[in-house]
Amino acid sequence: MTGADAPAPGGSDGPGGPGGYVIAGYASLFGVADDARDLVMRGAFRRSLKERGAEGIRLLWQHDPARPIGVWDALREDRRGLWVRGRILTSTALGRDAAQLVRNRALDGLSIGFRTRSARRDPRAGVRRVFDIDLWEVSLVTFPLHPDARIAAPGPAAALRVAS
């Protein structure tokens, strides 16, 4: 069983079980500009994670607030970026569809929905350095703005792997 296929703790291992379909990966990476030329700096999520916790950050389908598809169980900053682990709730039709697309590697993008609290343009580098983010949601998306913001490649410990 791969990390992406692993059932949530205490849940069923069936695709429609109450535990849901576990996903994990990096929703944002530090020090690497996204396609909008935003460069998220280490520590940018610290305040938001402290204020909201995982339970206050939504797991949405394609950034649509009317289409939640699951819950985030863990979000944390490490040396690489914002690592997330959650469950697509397969008790809904949209959740079942999303889980099937992820399971078959047709969809693996992650993207953050946020309000910038603190940032500074760096005209010489051509980027905006983002120092403080008010994180609202992390979505499962077809085309992430950051090309490396992805669900972890399948592997025995994909859902547990975190850089220190």
Short description:
The chain contains two helices and seven strands, in the order ββαβββαββ. The protein is mainly beta and about 160 residues long.
Walk me through this protein's architecture.
The protein has 164 residues and is mainly beta. Helix content is 11%, strand content 41%. Strands 1, 2, 3, 4, 5, 6 and 7 form a seven-stranded mixed beta sheet that branches. A hairpin with a 2-residue loop joins strand 3 (58-61) and strand 4 (64-77). The radius of gyration is 15 Å and the shape is globular.
What would the keywords be for this entry?
164 residues, seven-stranded mixed β-sheet, 7 strands, 11% helix, globular, disordered C terminus
Present the secondary structure layout.
Layout: E1 21-29, E2 38-40, H1 46-52, E3 58-61, E4 64-77, E5 81-88, H2 93-103, E6 109-122, E7 127-141
Parallel strand pairs: 2-7, 3-7
Antiparallel strand pairs: 1-5, 3-4, 4-5, 6-7
